[in-house]
Amino acid sequence: MLPIVSYFYCYVLHIKPLKHKIMNSKLIKVLQIVLGLAMLVFGANKFFNFLPAPEGMPEGASNFMGAMMETGYLFKLVALVEVITGILFLTNKWVPLALVLIAPVLVNIVLFHLFLAMAGILPGIVLTIIAIILFYHHWSAFKPLFKS
């Protein structure tokens, strides 16, 4: 809600934004570490299978995951993107680039759970919200993309 209010004040009313407590640098660091660890662990799991596979996955979800693995590259590519972005978040290097790379993966995670396997959607939503907060925090890096 806060980013929407801030957007309204900044761009509709042309008022300079106030420093909000949600953008506290310590909170941002914690959120970045949480997102980085999640991406690193879940990406590495796609390579090494150290976490147990979910039981009782719906048929559509199983078919989708199977199709990604059948391509021979797509599942590994998603895993590689997750690992790379996780490392970038944890090392605090090129965070805006990491956000751009991970955004389609997070959207797919939420949509996968929304349409194919509703159980387990909460972590995807939480990670997506964290990414949105980080996008907002790093908005100055993205602002030139939206100028005409």
Beta strands, count: 0
Model regions low in confidence, pLDDT < 50 over at least 5 residues: none
The number of domains is 1
Run of helices and strands: HHHHHHH
Q: What integer value in Å does the Rg equal?
A: 17 Å
Average pLDDT: 87
Helix-strand makeup class: mainly alpha
Strand content: under 5%
Q: Cα distance, first to last residue?
A: 27 Å
Global morphology: globular
Give me the number of helical elements: 7
Largest sheet: none
Helix content: over 70%
Question: How is this structure best described in words?
Answer:
This protein has 148 residues and is an all-alpha fold. The chain has one domain. The chain has helices at residues 2-12, 25-48, 59-70, 74-91, 95-115, 121-137, 139-142. The radius of gyration is 17 Å and the shape is globular.
